[in-house]
Amino acid sequence: MKTYKIDAIVLKARDMREADKILTVYSIQKGKQRIVAHGAAKPNSRKRGAVQPFCFSEFMLHRGRELDSISQAELREGFSELRLDLDRITAAAYVAELIDGFTAEEEPNQSIFRLFYSTLHLIAAGGQTGMILRAFEAKLLGYSGLQPELNHCSLCDVEIQDTKVSFGPQQGGLLCKGCAGLEKQIMKFSRGTIEILKTIYRWELTKLHQLKVPEALKRELHMLLRTYIEYHLEKRLKTTEFMDRLYKTIPGRGTNM
């Protein structure tokens, strides 16, 4: 068929020529793909509202030689609250960049789409942004087949019961004392941090507000997930670098982002 419909959230958009845009979107039907929005940059374009980053829109697409193009676009949800402050828009950009980094083109995953959609809702509502992002990171790793081992040693399978535990990003999870002593780049965390991560995997996102986490454990959880994510992506994310620079200059703000 020359035309088809997708329900998609816009991950990012960039200008192409004078009035066109190339969008990277994540849809229920086709997963991640790049599409062209001709004329979308014009002030009077009917597509303009539906092609903004983080918008959930219905697109009618026409197949092209290289990239398919939008023939019709209808905004379904704009998440306007995301644009009310810098913290929320930065968090949304970070989530979108992670989706882009962990997914391949045209490999749909409804669990990842639902996670993305629900996370944008929670960020827009102004919840605990730091813990929302930690839960998103953990669940995205799980849906990508990269959930860390949190009960047994990743190398010898012995059960881990220590109050201070070793975590190896390269090994994919916890390590016993014997195996940790043979490896490089091992990180140490409190048992409480691992228990919080286990809870995140068990709970739905909507229950996160019930989870009371001490600041010290929030910082450990942030470091664990960031290191594990950067190991698998083999790079630092642009939004991570931006948040580090921004919140370093604003004491007390964004410390759990």
Notable traits:
257 residues; alpha+beta; OB fold (Dihydrolipoamide Acetyltransferase, E2P); de novo design (two linked rop proteins); 2 domains; 5-stranded mixed β-barrel; 3-stranded antiparallel sheet; 8 strands
What's the helix and strand layout?
Layout: E1 3-16, E2 20-27, E3 31-37, E4 56-62, E5 68-77, H1 86-102, H2 110-124, H3 129-143, E6 164-168, E7 173-175, H4 177-180, E8 187-190, H5 191-202, H6 215-233, H7 238-248
Parallel strand pairs: 3-5
Antiparallel strand pairs: 1-2, 1-4, 2-3, 4-5, 6-7, 6-8
Helix pairs in contact: 1-2, 1-3, 1-7, 2-3, 3-6, 5-6
How would you describe what is shown here?
By secondary structure, the chain is α+β, with helices and mostly antiparallel strands. It has 2 domains: 3-78, Nucleic acid-binding proteins (OB fold (Dihydrolipoamide Acetyltransferase, E2P), Beta Barrel), CATH 2.40.50.140; 81-150 and 161-248, de novo design (two linked rop proteins) (Up-down Bundle). It has 7 helices and 8 strands, in the order βββββαααββαβααα. The chain has helices spanning 86-102, 110-124, 129-143, 177-180, 191-202, 215-233, 238-248, and strands spanning 3-16, 20-27, 31-37, 56-62, 68-77, 164-168, 173-175, 187-190. The strands form 2 sheets. The chain has a 5-stranded mixed beta barrel with strand order 1-2-3-5-4. Strands 7-6-8 form a 3-stranded antiparallel sheet. A hairpin with a 3-residue loop joins β2 (20-27) and β3 (31-37). The longest helix is centred in the last third of the chain and has 19 residues, at 215-233. It is elongated, with a radius of gyration of 20 Å.
